[in-house]
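Appendix B, Record 12. Input sequence as logged:
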Amino acid sequence: MSAFIFALGLTLMHFLWQGLLLGCATAVALTLLRNSRAEYRYVVACAGLLACLCWPALELWQRLASDAAAASASSPVLPWMGDAFSDNITGFNLRDALRYVVSLWALCAAMLALRVVAGLLWIDRVSRQPASHPDHLRWERDLEQLARRLGITRTVRLRVIDALASPVTAGWWQPVVLVPAALVGGMPPELLQALLAHEMAHIKRHDYLVNLLQNLIETLLFYHPAVWWLSNRIRLERELIADDIAASQLGEPRRLALALSELERLRFSHHQLAQAANGGNLMQRIQHLLRPAPQALNWKAAVAMLGVAVACLSVYAQASAADKSASGFKPALIDFNSCAKPVWPDGAIAAQRTGTVQLEFKVGKDGKVKESSVDHSSGHPDLDEAARIGISKCQFKPATKTGKPIETKQKMQYVWTLE
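Logged structural output:
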């Protein structure tokens, strides 16, 4: 199996306990900051989710680097550890299991990636539609005024869409606000303006880029509940921050709260890669705008966190045991006392031939050399053949996998010098 697939499989397996640990640590930090500003909780949640990406990425890089270092190791006197043929091992095969795990992970990640791409294409298509609504120019002017008040220098486009139930924002360099036609015609203008102020707050904060990174992490680590919990918490705190910015610009938190209560009565759909005014818990956001109250510590949640911590330790123990089992390979070791000194070929000394020959051979389960060949020639066929005959007389201690002898490929160099 490919070294990359094996390393990736181990990394995905170890993230089971790593994700639990990061989720627990973030949950504790958010609990301590439950009565602080939403910006602080947002930063903590983002850091936790980013760590979910960086930790396994760093571990995968270290695994591949260590494998590459082992594969490139070569010495004149020590054998090079090559591929192991573990066909004699019966029972559970971790390598085969990891191959299936990686295949299933890749399939699911590809499907989620296609879903994200479909969302991007949908946003691009509807944002390119020509403006045809009769009130389009009026709301575009209001959007320009909001942009100036928030210090946004980029041009923000506005599109009125029929097949949409709530305003959404997409794009970073060329942002666009998509407004449902039903809201333009049915919601009081002052309430719709409050929702647009919320969308402009997302543009000011570049939330679209953070949401793109969230979708990437959700796609790669979709199998872990902690990733989805952290991502949902980021979206909740982000909406609270955008609400605060919009309310401060409007000077009327109550107006935005009324606009959110109108949205609560609508059946809306959430589009990936876009921030919408209906994100998060609407009732919680309304309460945050009107009557923010200190949150009491929920001790029942501590019991659940204790259970998660126990599960984290259990998964860590299982993953570590499996990792040790997977790496429990011991290479073949040469018994130098069994090796006779190579015989110089006739005429090689007289011609003063020297050089280094690298041999490739198999060490059987009995420790005997077989199927030897010249991997890199010394430049002299007679020296190459003499080295090949010499290595065939050596005895090795066979390589083992989980304590059982196995057949391995080896490489070793002979250096022919004249003193």
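DSSP finds twelve helices and twelve strands in the chain.
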